[in-house]
Design brief:
WH_DNA-bd_sf (chains A, B); globular; 3-stranded antiparallel β-sheet; homodimer; 6 helices; Arc Repressor Mutant, subunit A; DNA-binding; DNA-binding transcription factor activity (chains A, B); MarR/SlyA-like (chains A, B)
Chain lengths: ~150, ~150
DNA sequence: CCTATAGTTGCGGGGAACAACCAACTGAGG
DNA sequence: CCTCAGTTGGTTGTTCCCCGCAACTATAGG
């Protein structure tokens, strides 16, 4: 069976990773000094709504320690608010502040512009299709990688 | 105009980055102890044929210093051979050794298997289409990011 | 009391950029 | 020719960021 397709996919994925990193790291500080990874956290909070640190870490597929530090920084910058969970004194609920929303909004616009410039000759249909396929891909990968109960270890 | 599409694309891209990293880092050492980044260099060499360090760095979109160190390690492991460029005593030509080819071959098979498992329910047509779109995306991004003469700074 | 869970902090490591550097290839003038 | 300035190919040192693991605290729940 044609395993070349998968290999090609892996290769292209790898390149995309690099380019994406360049994009976010170069066209600098899209998130107004926050950087791409913290920006990802903002985006996750926006999409998923207020949630606990562990949930956020799970969403982002990073270790809780990583999420903890990132969250701490965002809180310090006033982009995220942390309030105690009324049901559990150990836990905290993280949520975007008004500032966080604003920063994220501007960032989305800006990165959108950049991508739009690069992809000026794309039809919207193509773009949508790509997004759709990527979404499916991510879903399946996620399931394969962590859906199986094996912990991240 | 619908900038949501681009934002979604950015978000999905980011997630893919994370998942890809997990995949290569977890299903561990696909390249027999070489690791994903060095593997990428092997793949680039395979696809582009023997080339100079600078060309390789350009392909991979990394700084020459990074490529230099990676190449050095691959040479040390005997997966890549470095021979002097007859036309330029400063330069060297990097090329895969037989071992390098073998390792890469096995790695491609293995990562292909993993992806295939995760994407078992995909049709080959879908996969091909995704690869096609990704390739196009990468091409355009690359052009936008570094095609413009502005240096990386 | 004992175990499991939410989070934090202290390591350590890997990937990458930047800058400073050496070496060798240019390409004018003299 | 010859030399010297400028350019280009590579390497090394430093630093930074992101990450995972391990150890720890504190609360929850039986």
């Amino acid at each position: 069976m044609r395993s070349d397709v998968w290999s090609d996919l892996v290769d292209q994925g790898r390149l995309l990773v690099r380019l994406g990193k360049l994009l976010t790291h170069r066209h600098v500080e899209i998130y107004e000094g926050v950087g791409p990874t913290l920006g990802g956290m903002l985006a996750a909070l926006s999409k998923g709504g207020a949630m606990r640190l562990t949930a956020l870490a799970d969403q982002l597929q990073v270790d809780t320690s990583v999420a903890s530090r990132q969250a701490a920084e965002l809180v310090e910058r006033g982009l995220v608010e942390r309030r105690p969970d009324p049901d559990d004194a150990r836990a905290g609920i993280l949520d975007l502040t008004a500032d966080g929303h604003a920063v994220l909004q501007r960032a989305r616009e800006r990165s959108g512009e950049i991508v739009a410039a690069a992809l000026a000759d794309w039809s919207e249909a193509e773009a949508r299709q790509l997004v759709e396929l990527l979404t499916k891909l991510n879903g399946d990968l996620r399931e394969e990688l962590c859906g199986g109960r094996e912990r991240v270890r």
